Amino acid sequence: MKFDKWLNERLDKTKEAGLHRTLRTMNTAPRPEMCIDSQQQIVFSSNNYLGLANNERLVNAAGTVLHEFGVGSSGSRLTTGNSKWHEKLENRIASFKQTEAALLFSSGYLANVGVLSSLPEKGDVLLSDQLNHASIIDGCRLSKAETVIYNHVDMENLEEKLKETGSYQHRFIVTDGVFSMDGTIAPLDKIMSLAKRYDAFVIVDDAHATGVLGENGRGTSEYFGVFPDVVIGTLSKAIGTEGGFVAGSKVFIDFLLNNARTFIYQTAIPPSICAASYAALEIVEHSKEERQLLLSKVKQIKTSLEEIGYTVKGGHTPIIPVIIGDTQKTVTFANRLQEKGIYAPAIRPPTVAKGESRIRLTVTTDHQFKQIDYLLESFNLIGKELNIIK
Ligand code: PMP
Question: What is the pTM of this model?
Answer without folding.
Answer: 0.96
